[in-house]
Structure formats: C-alpha cells, structure tokens
Specification:
The chain is of the alpha+beta class. The chain has helices spanning about 20-30, 50-60, 85-90, 100-105, 125-130, 165-175, 190-205, 235-250, 265-270, 310-315, 335-340, 370-385, 395-400, 405-410, 420-435, and strands at about 1-5, 15, 40, 65-70, 70-75, 105-110, 135-140, 145, 155, 180-185, 205-210, 215-220, 230, 250-255, 275-280, 280-285, 295, 320-325, 345-350, 355-360, 365-370, 390, 415-420. Bound molecules: uridine-diphosphate-2(N-acetylglucosaminyl) butyric acid.
Length: about 425
C-alpha cells in the first residue's frame, strides 16, 4: 500500500485543470449497456473506480476499449445479466447496473453492495423504484435478483428519508427509458451527474422531460442507439482545489469548471469572506485573508454537497472562530474527525454536527484515511500544517482524484507517494534520535 508524505506550509500557486466527474462517468458506463451499439465516452477520469467498472462490463461480455487515458469505447453487443461478486463488492456504484440490465435483458442478478464506512447505505429506494415500474425484486444469497418480464410505465415517488437518492434515480431513469408506456419519477435527484446521464440518454434516443428537476417524465422507447458523450467536470474535485487555495493562502486558477454546478459551495466561501473571481469556466483565488467561521448543512443538490463536507471540516479547523458543520445526507460521515484531531484540530461531534474551534495552524502527524473524501481532507490539512504529515491508505484517494499528487506538485506543494514501509522507517529513526 502507498502512503503520502506531505511537507506543509507552502502556498499553492499556478493553474490546475479539473478532470471529468467520477460520479457522472460511472452511471454513464452503466448506461452504455442500454444499447447494443457503440458508445464513446470522453473526459473520463483515469481512476481505479473507472477501471473496476470497465472490468465489470468486460466480465459481462461487453467489448470495452480504452482509446486513451480519458476516452473509452464500449460495445455491449452480447451481454449477460450477471456481475461478479469479487468486482462488485469493491464499488458501490455497481448497483446502477440494475436499471440498464433489467431494461435491456428483463433480468438482473447483482450482488448486494456491502456496507460503507461513511454510514448506512441501503438500497431500499432502488428496489422500490424497480418494483414501482413493475419488476419483481428478491434478495437471495446476498444477490439482488430482478425479474423484469412485466415492467410497465408508471407514476412513482422515489425520494426517501434523507431526500432524493442519486444512483437510485439513475437506476429508475435507465429502466424507464426502455420501459413501454409513460413514467413519472417524482422525488428524483437533480444532481448535475443525473442531468449529465439524462443528456446522454437523450442523445441515445430517450424521451425525457423535466431534466434537471425533481419531476422527470419519461416516454419509454423500443430501442436506444449509441452516442459520443463528454463527461461533465468534477465539481467535488474543483471544490477540493478551491479549499486547498483558501487553506494555503495561494494564488490559484482552477480551469475547466462549471460554476452552475457549484452554487451553494461558492456562496458559502463568498459569505465566509474568501476573495475569488469567476470567469467563464475558471475560478481565480488570490487571497490570504482570514475567513469568517463557517456554518454548513449538507443536503442533496442544489444544497451543499456531502462530498465536500470532510474538506470543509479541514478548512474550518484553520479558520478562527466557531464553525458548525451539519451532515444531513450521511449523518455519521465523520471518520476524518479523529484524524484531524491528531493534527491539532479542535472538533467535537454532537449528533450529526461537527463543532469546530478553528486554530491558526495544524501540525503534521501520521494519519489514516478511511474513505475517499476523508483522504482529501487529510491531505488538505497536511498542506496547511507545519511539519510532515503521512497519510496512510491513500488507495481510497485513487478511487476519486485523478493525478492528485501530480496536480498538487505542479502547484508547488510537496507531496510524495511512497511505499508504506517508509513511514515505519521514519518512525524508528526518530525513536532512535529520542533514545
Ligand atoms: N438512501 C436510502 N435508501 C436507498 C438509497 C439511499 O435510504 O436505497 C439514503 C442514503 O443512505 C443516504 C441518502 O439516501 O442517506 C443519499 O444517498 P444516495 O443514494 O444519493 O447516494 P449514492 O447514490 O449511493 C452518490 C455518490 C456519493 C455521494 C452521494 C450523495 C456516486 C457513485 N456516489 O451515492 O459519492 O456521496 O450520491 O450525494 O454517485 C463520493 O464520491 O465520495 C461518494 C460517496
């Protein structure tokens, strides 16, 4: 396993380009199964999760070619409706294969995705959506088995206790577009990644009204065809770089962004006093002013994204005053907190809120990443901290940030990828010094 060694305290300067969105690309790979034609996806981030998805489709019989590091060609002429457990268990997003398989083959058998460190991640809303469109769904031997012989267009509500479900909505849409009749999906998620999926499906011949809203009206068609589609920019990656600029007092330009996807996040940073300018598809930050404390509540889009909550906790840890960060999507998604405490942050957890008393500076320490966004938060903290920070288990990071250390290094940060054994060597040599 690799780790990162970060020497903090350097302001980030220069330009960085945001990659394509992982959370858009994964359902788009699944959507390519809705046709037996060829689909070409561009601006796909080069990430381990994308490689898992490509492997799963290949195992199912699709021809999957990597054209270059960010473009893929998928031709699923003949596929089976089963996905292998060894691959599916590695990635929750494989649940969004259910919709396309049932739509095209009238059958799907996908192993139930496992638990997740960011909290309870049930699939009851996915199941309800499939059932609402006439599918029979059974769980047997840890496998979700769907029989879609009798699917029909229907009006269904697909929201849940925590609001809408992103991949659950993706499943419902991908089933409805090839289901005979008229479907109305009330309570749909309207994240930009869902809009991207709808836009690609329309290119493939789907009939969808209400794109970008919570109410989607879909007229099922008999057949979809292939298309070429460019994945939208990753709003979470863009937000992460912006926080890096804010934390290090840098002079940073973030290119290739879509600010319409980042409204609540940009509004928060503006109201906390960060100076930045927005141009057509870039953000420039040139600021080392002290920010005001932050008050954040995560919510489904257009609310503040849960996928930037951990990174905002890192920023609040170095923002003087009392910040309150409340998590409403995954109430227990705070695995980064104990690690930030190791770096000198002052955070107490009260239910699903983190109360953070910002200090002037964090101090480097060995820390452990528990999940993708926690890894990003710890790296941001390391960039700001004095001394060395060692971030372990960065395979989580590799699932969702393309070339993170290269991009940070280009901006002037000191981030080094090393084998894990280097950390024990460093600890034993400092123990020798003490002895
Ligand atoms: N939920 C249910 N039942 C369900 C599905 C969801 O109760 O059947 C609940 C969840 O427990 C959660 C809420 O609904 O409380 C929202 O979950 P959602 O289904 O929207 O999450 P997801 O589709 O599994 C996607 C992203 C996540 C991101 C969430 C929320 C992908 C591949 N994953 O997950 O991304 O946090 O939406 O925006 O799109 C990440 O990138 O780090 C990540 C975890």
């Amino acid at each position: 396993m690799d780790i990162f060694r970060i020497c903090g305290g350097l302001a980030l300067r220069g330009e960085v380009k945001v990659s394509g969105s992982k959370n858009s690309a994964l359902p788009l790979f699944a959507a390519s199964l809705l046709t037996d034609d060829e689909t070409i996806l561009e601006n796909v981030p080069d990430l381990s999760d994308i490689n898992f998805m490509a492997e799963i489709l290949t195992e199912m019989g699709a021809e999957v070619y990597r054209i270059d590091s960010n473009s893929w060609k998928i031709r699923p002429t003949s596929i089976v409706p089963y996905a292998p457990y060894e691959l599916v268990r590695k990635m929750r997003a494989s649940i969004c294969l259910l919709g396309p398989l049932v739509a095209r083959l009238k059958k799907a058998e996908i192993p139930m995705p496992g638990g997740c460190v960011i909290g309870n991640r049930p699939i009851d809303l996915h199941v309800r959506a499939l059932q609402g469109l006439g599918a029979d769904v059974q769980l047997s031997g840890g496998i979700v088995k769907v029989d879609g012989k009798n699917i029909f267009g229907n009006s269904i509500f697909i929201g849940g206790r925590h609001g809408s479900t992103v991949t659950g909505t993706a499943n419902a849409i991908m089933l409805a577009v090839l289901t005979p009749g008229h479907s109305v999906l009330e309570g749909s998620a309207c994240e930009p990644e869902i809009t991207d999926l709808c836009n690609m499906l329309v290119k493939m011949g789907a009939k969808i009204e209400g794109i970008g809203s919570h109410l989607l009206k879909i007229e099922g068609v008999n057949k979809l065809h292939g298309c070429r589609h460019t994945v939208i920019p990753d709003r979470i990656e863009a937000g992460t770089y912006m926080i890096a600029g804010a934390m290090t007092g840098g002079d940073l330009t973030i290119n290739g962004i879509e600010h319409a996807h980042m409204g609540s996040f940009l509004d928060l940073l503006k109201s906390s006093g960060l100076n930045f300018t927005l141009n057509e598809n870039k953000i420039q930050i040139n600021d080392n002013s002290t920010l005001n404390p932050l008050e954040v509540v995560t919510l489904p889009f257009p609310g503040f994204p849960t996928d930037l909550q951990a990174q905002i906790c890192a920023l609040a840890s170095v923002t003087p005053g009392l910040s309150v960060i409340t998590e409403r999507v995954y109430p227990s998604r705070f695995m980064h907190v104990p690690e930030l405490l190791r770096m000198g942050a002052h955070i107490s957890l009260e239910g699903s809120s983190a109360i953070i008393r910002g200090s002037q500076k964090l101090t480097g320490a060995p820390v452990m990443a528990s999940d993708l966004r926690a890894s990003a938060a710890l790296i941001l903290a390391g960039l700001e901290a004095t001394g060395e920070t060692w971030v372990q288990r960065i395979y989580h990071l590799d699932r969702g940030y393309e070339n993170f250390e290269q991009k940070l290094t280009q901006l002037g940060a000191y981030v080094e990828r090393l084998p894990e054994s280097e950390l024990s060597k460093s600890i034993s040599s400092s123990n020798n010094l003490i002895n």
